[in-house]
Predict the structure.
Amino acid sequence: MQQAPSAVKVKAIDCLHFINGEFVPSVDGKVFNNINPATEEVLGIVAEGGSADVDLAVQAAKKALQGPWKKMTASERTAIVRRIGDLILERKDELAYLESLDTGKPLWLSSSTDIPRSAYNFHFFSEYIRTLSNEASQTDDVALNYSIRRPLGVVGLINPWNLPLLLLTWKLAPALAAGNTVVMKPAELTPMTATVLAEICRDAGVPDGVVNLVHGFGPNSAGAALVEHPDVNGITFTGETTTGMAIMASASTTLKRLSYELGGKNPNIIFADSDLDEVIETTLKSSFINQGEVCLCGSRIYVERSIYDQFLDKFVEKTKGLIVGDPFIQETKVGALISREHYERVTSYIELAKEEGGHILLGGKRPEGFEKGYYLEPTIIVGLDNGCRVVREEIFGPVVTVIPFDSEEEVIEQANDTHYGLSATIWTNDLRRAHRVAGQIEAGIVWVNTWFLRDLRTPFGGMKQSGIGREGGVHSFEFYTELTNVCIKL
Ligand code: NAD
């Protein structure tokens, strides 16, 4: 698949908070261990933030809103944003290594996707914001209206562990380009690349207090303290739907602006007229890349009955060829799951599939020869229907269900029969059907004959319980700015 990068041996780092331009421990000195999911060994220690640390970070961010950052011209600010991307590329081998150590994902994947796309987020948003102009409208000969955009203020960025740097930079880049100051709260399971990113921001010339980082957990910890803080103007959150619900409840007391990218249980719909080899090649990725720990993974596979057996034969055969194991070996296609807790959650769904009458066609267990590490074979389950929990609930691991269908109407109904609505993939060579089905699937993102192909100008996000709002292009800036209409009587 991808070229393996030259292996650089990089040592894991201990992670401190970054507040007002300095790396600092927690006020109360608390720390927790960072575990390597591939070996179960301790990688290092992480400062465990609480409300006192969050308050220091928020006060620094609030003060920085009035400092040199505010006085910069747009071109001065966007040059710094661009430089962050340049410095990520300069340190890409180190960042890729740390990302794979933290997550258990293959090094080739961190090197080819996570890190370069993180750099591109800064390059893209630093340029894109310069293309935007404000609205103006004339009301007959009575008045002239125009709008001005200002930064939202202090923004809290709360992130998950599956694509740590990529998703953090997807928020940080537009937030900075629009002139905000931020407090980042990365996932407790993956603190390392966020820590290096803070250093990179400083080296790129971001003034003190503009970018702050507080490590810690969610409830009763740094995450909750950030959401509850009265001086935080907005929270942009990516994570589980249930966490989103908890955040919405606690953010209500200070009435913050919220942006939500939540869970998914995405349909991958394969019509008989599609090009099966192309389908299989992409479906391997949309099922198992990053150990299936991607919110966009197409874990519900629906196949038109006339090609169901043929699809399964080929899909099973190709999946058998995916090497599971050490993230730092070039041939590895599937690394380790993120944690013991998550491994147990994912494997509990495999047990549930058996109870619900499903048949484990492939995988479903630890690969042989691994005593340590949260490894799981790519798993294909058949014999379940849409009523089963395994088909309805997000598993977020290398586990897919395959279900046959007979008609377009039936598969649209099945695809939409979920609380989620993040993404969908449709495979067909019938142009009219592609448009027809795409227009009826309840999802924020629909791919036709492809998956995970992104243009950063386009809206990204989910409907139903998969999210609120959109990110990408102008949509990101709608979240990160406040709009004022100025009305002048003529
Ligand atoms: P999670 O919701 O458990 O945690 C995400 C972040 O929220 C972490 O930093 C965590 O510490 C913090 N958090 C937890 N409880 C909190 C609280 N009460 N208040 C404030 N912060 C809190 O999610 P996860 O397990 O890290 O990530 C996996 C989930 O993320 C999956 O559901 C996946 O689909 C989703 N995800 C969605 C997208 C998307 O773009 N829609 C992208 C990636 C991942």
